Amino acid sequence: MAAPAEEGTLVGLCDGELDTKRHRSSYLTNKVGGEPDWLPGVSRRSPRCGRCGAPLVHVVQVYCPLDVSPYHRHLHLFACPAAECSSGPECWRVLRSQCLEAEVAAAERTPSRPPPAQEAPLAATDWCDTADDWGMEEEEEEEEEEEDGWGGRGVKEDSQVQEEAAAPEADAGETDVSSCLQDLSLGESQEEVPVLRPFFISVVEEADLGGEEDDLRHAQKLLREYERREGVTVGELEDGEGGGGEEKYEKTKARHGDAVFSRFMKKISLCPQQILRYCRGGKPLFISEPPSNMAQVVPACGSCGASRTFELQLMPALVSLLQRKDVGAEAQLEFGTVLVYTCKNSCWTAGSGSAVEEFCFVQTDPDQQLFK
């Protein structure tokens, strides 16, 4: 998922559930939930909630290479599934990872586990040549031991005794190590990371969804031309001498309680089912009034110190898709929109193997606040 060369917004839509038995996702897959697919050479991370310390659930994976960069590029968003935590910024984490095409090719050539060493296959004649030799060396050793008398045999028996005496100690050591490993694995399994049901994300350009909006713009253009030609406004023609048009706007504004929220709803009304908006370097769509010092709210990149720029945001329609894979369990994630800001330079240290943490800004839905 990468923004087109000209400024434009890409819209993410749910494209059906990802059946792990039939489909295998990779770092190239844009998806909701499931297990994160890390880029080759990037260490797997399980971030934790900054408020309650619980392991975070994987919410969204976005493949978003930059046009002028040689890197594959990934964004992973994680959130705390606890209802009291989902709206807090410290309960969200976004990790950016990158790798070169050469690293991907090397990882594909290198198997995950080295194959066991295989001996050269034996020919049929080899079996015949060595058939008479089986057991000959052992018989010769036994004859030599008999010639040595009890001393030779005693050395062998003493070594066996020593090996048998050492065996319990070795077994005990192995038991201690295995028990430690077992305790470690049990300690990790006691707190399993929840997994959300995976869904594919299809990506379309917002401009391609604007058929009705284009018709509306054309009608507004004709309306403005009519107003200039006649020297009147539509509001005056419709509402007569009274200011009915302004009163109607005030009622709408009072209903939503926030002009920013009204603009948000108007913008997404063209495609209410959108779950994600992507426009690196563009303008975010706020659901409520942002802080006046938003430039100071977004911190600089923790790796290189460069400023951060807006890249993508999660939309309210995504909330209904965030369902636990556990039978009867709900994720309890609630938010209005989650805005992601990333390093303007998209800095990356080759070979570091560690994802870079970026910044999330969480806004709640004003209507949700009214009913809480």
Q: What keyword list fits this structure?
A:
372 residues, 10 helices, 11-stranded antiparallel β-sheet, alpha+beta, globular
Can you give me a brief rundown of this structure?
The protein is of the alpha+beta class. The chain is built from ten helices and eleven strands.
SSE arrangement:
Layout: E1 10-17, E2 31-32, E3 57-63, E4 71-79, E5 92-100, H1 101-109, H2 124-131, H3 136-148, H4 150-189, E6 199-205, H5 211-230, H6 234-239, H7 244-256, H8 259-268, E7 276-278, H9 294-297, E8 308-314, E9 337-343, E10 356-357, E11 359-363, H10 366-371
Antiparallel strand pairs: 1-6, 1-7, 2-3, 2-6, 3-4, 4-5, 5-10, 7-8, 8-9, 9-11
Describe it for me?
Helix content is 35%, strand content 18%. With 372 residues, it is α+β, with helices and mostly antiparallel strands. Strands 10-5-4-3-2-6-1-7-8-9-11 form an 11-stranded antiparallel beta sheet. A hairpin with a 7-residue loop joins strand 3 and strand 4. The protein is globular and about 75 Å long.
* Order of adjacent strands in the largest pleated sheet: 10-5-4-3-2-6-1-7-8-9-11
Distance between the termini: 36 Å
Rg from Cα: 33 Å
Largest sheet data: 11 strands, antiparallel
